[in-house]
Amino acid sequence: MSQRLKTIQALRGIAAISVLFFHYRFYLRGNDTSGSSLWDILFGWGIIGVDIFFVISGFIMVYTTHYYYHGWRSSIRFLLNRATRVIPLYYFCLLVAFLLGGAMSTFHYPEKIQNLFSALTFTVYKTNIAPHYIDDDEMYNIRWTLNYEVYFYIIFALCLLVKRRLITLLIYGLLATCIIPVCLGFQPTLSSQGYKFQEAIYGFLSNPIILEFLIGAIIGYFHILLKKQNLPFNLELTSLLMSCALSLFIAYGVYSEKIIALSFYSTIIISFFILAITLAEPLISKRIPDNMVYLGNISFSLYLLHNSIGMAIMKRIDTSHNNLIISWLIVLMAITASVIAAHFTHTYIEVKFTSWLKQKCATQIANTKI
């Protein structure tokens, strides 16, 4: 079993908090929709947390399965592990969003019913809203990222059927995001706006955003390869210095708006940073606070819950005061409520219920030689 990396957990926590502030800034900025308010400047970049999650996801898929033999048993084991971790928590959070977002009144509006069906089935239906391909103003809009997660889980599981899984993954990525669209008459693109297909599902399947997972998988392989090599220099110290330099470069890039969310260039920089900090894990992990690691542990729950809980609190409180201190107190209340809720869902769903569910599935994967 691969050892859990503290650096990855801490980075997950930072990514979750970044996305949280990105969404909560809408409340802090009030009626200022210019995009240049103080809160937009401070937290508008926070959506980069999504890129971090996508790259980490690809990295972890490789990191946790590199010892798997190829074949259907490994593929099923991987899918069962992913399904038991993601699906119960997702549907619980979807229920919370449903109850806080109008509940039964949802069924009075055809567009809300369509959105609910899409949420229940992990399907897309909007061709003019890329890379979401769902109505991002409707209930539980944050789920668009889960659609890509599930998509890549399936592709990665299929790649586990063959021995050369990385090559297979690269071939699929090239086919889906370039070769097939070009053959259908589109100009190749790396933009997350993707290709303008008439059907949302085709735009979703070919969207270059899946390259973020693929790049994460590649650096996962590099991490494993470099750890096995007897290099003529101190890999951990060199990686630590590189991670420091890259963190400064990323900070400047965010400040100068050269590093932005859902950008191929930004993804490459973030990927090198993740590779550097994971290679420097023995040096960095000792200095990472335990609460930061725990924030990373609950980051999936926090990511899925914060929008519903936070906005439910903010929308139910009078916003006519225009008082900055009161606004901050309300946001802190929303953050506290989201973190507490994430703590409990992580403990009782992600850990306890998932463990129980895996035991129920044990007859299908126990005593299987992989």
Task: Give the helices and strands, then pairings.
Elements: H1 6-28, H2 38-43, H3 48-65, H4 72-100, H5 110-121, H6 144-159, H7 165-183, H8 200-206, H9 210-228, H10 235-255, H11 264-279, H12 281-284, H13 290-297, H14 299-315, H15 324-360, H16 362-365
Helix pairs in contact: 1-3, 1-13, 1-14, 1-15, 3-6, 3-9, 3-11, 4-6, 4-14, 4-15, 7-9, 9-11, 10-11, 14-15
Summed over residues and divided by their number, the pLDDT gives a mean of: 90
Low-confidence stretches: none
As a percent range, the share of helical residues equals 55-70%
| Beta-strand fraction estimate | under 5%
Q: Got a strand count?
A: 0
Please give a handful of descriptors for the protein shown:
single chain, 370 residues, mainly alpha, 0% strand
Quick synopsis:
The chain is an all-alpha fold and 370 residues long.
What does this molecule look like?
The chain has 16 helices and no strands. The protein is mainly α. The protein has one domain (about 5-365). Helix 7 (about 165-185) runs antiparallel to helix 9 (about 210-230), helix 10 (about 235-255) runs antiparallel to helix 11 (about 265-280) and helix 14 (about 300-315) packs across helix 15 (about 325-360). The chain is globular. The mean pLDDT is about 90.
